[in-house]
Specification:
With 229 residues, the chain is mainly α. It is built from 10 helices and no strands. Helix 5 runs antiparallel to helix 7 and helix 6 packs antiparallel against helix 9.
Length: 229
């Protein structure tokens, strides 16, 4: 069924975040920190595996350069964080100014939306109504949202509507474009997205503090570059 995978995925994130927030009350901080690092290693593996599927490194490099320029000029990372802060102030009565609400939103959004399974799954759903990949992704996102919500807070909830819109747009565009999206384009979009997944893992492990939202536009540049390269 067209679009069913995105609906299921969104509901899985909401349900997982709810379970995570309930679990947070009994989760020791030491255990929570250890779980974040453990998931970070798994995310690193997923990102590296997807990146190695790149068929033309030049497309990836140019996409990252152009995407970073666009994202930085638009200040996407800053806008997303400010949005998270506004939502938190609206719904939170006891904010100490050091909440991880915005960070939870950004990191969970990137984890749920930037990976290889998001791009390929949404495209398959749009092209032929096959939601198999998105159903598998829903299971992974359910588990991840539990851990994220239990350790970082309610900001994970905000990633659910963002996920619905993001995957929904890719699905609709794929449906409209049909055969225009070649296997080459999909492979390069997947590789660039996986590279950003590596960045998520590095941030989770405390190695870097990359403003990953500024790199998001890079995912879509392979569509244009593959026409000429």
């Amino acid at each position: 069924m067209f679009g069913l995978g995105t609906i299921v995925n969104t509901l899985a994130v909401i349900l997982g975040a709810t379970v995570g927030l309930l679990f947070k009350k009994v989760l020791p901080k030491k255990l929570g920190d250890a779980l974040v690092l453990g998931v970070g290693l798994c995310v690193l593996y997923i990102g590296v595996e997807g990146t190695l599927k790149c068929t033309n490194p030049l497309v990836m490099i140019i996409s990252m350069v152009l995407g970073t320029i666009v994202g930085t000029l638009l200040d996407l990372d800053g806008k997303i964080h400010r949005l998270g802060e506004k939502v938190e102030k609206k719904f939170s009565k006891n904010s100490d100014g050091k909440s991880t609400f915005g960070a939870a939103f950004v990191q969970s959004f990137l984890l749920f939306c930037v990976g290889a399974m998001t791009v390929t799954g949404s495209i398959q759903s749009g092209l032929n109504g096959d939601n198999t990949i998105l159903f598998s992704k829903s299971v992974l996102d359910f588990v991840s949202s539990i851990i994220y919500a239990s350790t970082m807070g309610a900001g994970v909830y905000l990633s659910a509507p963002a996920l619905f819109i993001y995957q929904g747009v890719i699905t609709l565009v794929s449906y409209a474009l049909g055969e225009v999206l070649t296997a080459y384009m999909i492979a390069e979009m997947t590789a660039v997205g996986s590279l950003l997944i590596v960045g998520i893992a590095l941030n989770m492990l405390g190695i870097t503090k990359l403003k990953l939202m500024d790199y998001i536009p890079a995912i879509f540049f392979p569509i244009l570059l593959c026409l000429f390269m």
